[in-house]
Amino acid sequence: MTTVHLPASGRARRSAVDAADLPLPATAADRLLHDHCRPGHPHLVDDRVSVCFEVCPPGSGGEISERDARRVGMARKLTAARLRYCGLEALVDDAKLIVSELVTNAIQHGGGAQVTFTMTVRDGFLHLAVHDGTPCRPVVRSAPNDAECGRGLFLVDCLASARGGTWGTSDDGTTIWCCLAVPGGES
To answer: Contact at 8 Å (CB) between 181 and 163?
Structure first.
């Protein structure tokens, strides 16, 4: 398993990757990927990447800080880079959108000071999970046509269904996850 911890200072610490400022530079993402995939082979040797970062409480109106917005972008970039490197290009766009929605929701609605994003390819599925430590069960809601927010989980639900997957929360409500079928059943 690859783990990157991003403390409030914005510096990454990981045993096999040098510290890197946010947003995660492409070279750091590449090192993360090269450490855990076989060159020239689209299958993962170590099939799990986990990124943990500290977050600020949302501002009035649920707005997130610029630093936390960059962390959402970093999670998208890491997702795209990992999937491309491992030969799963077909999942990149949908996975990036799902990760963006799940991480943003954890920052906006979670009460914790830390969020952990985990991506695993196993048993023919891409598993995306976001843990915020808050025992709250998110629900899909219907947003008015002119609303600028409120459609995130609806999008996650639609994308998961279209990709032969599903989504849900852990029994204690602290983790939200989504699974997408890997094209061709690769794992």
So the answer is: yes
166 vs 186, residue with greater confidence: 166
**Which residue, chain included where needed, has tokens 């960059």?**
70
Does pLDDT of 18 surpass 90? no
Map the chain to HEC letters: CEEEEECCCCECEECCECCCECCCCHHHHHHHHHCCECCCCCCECCCEEEEEEECCCCCHHHCCCHHHHHHHHHHHHHHHHHHHHCCCHHHHHHHHHHHHHHHHHHHHHCCCCEEEEEEEEECCEEEEEEECCCCCCCCCCCCCCCCCCCCHHHHHHHHHHHCCCEEEECCCCCEEEEEEECHHHCC
The yes-or-no verdict on residue 150 having pLDDT over 80 is no
Tell me what pLDDT residue 81 has: 94
Assess whether pLDDT exceeds 70 at residue 56: yes
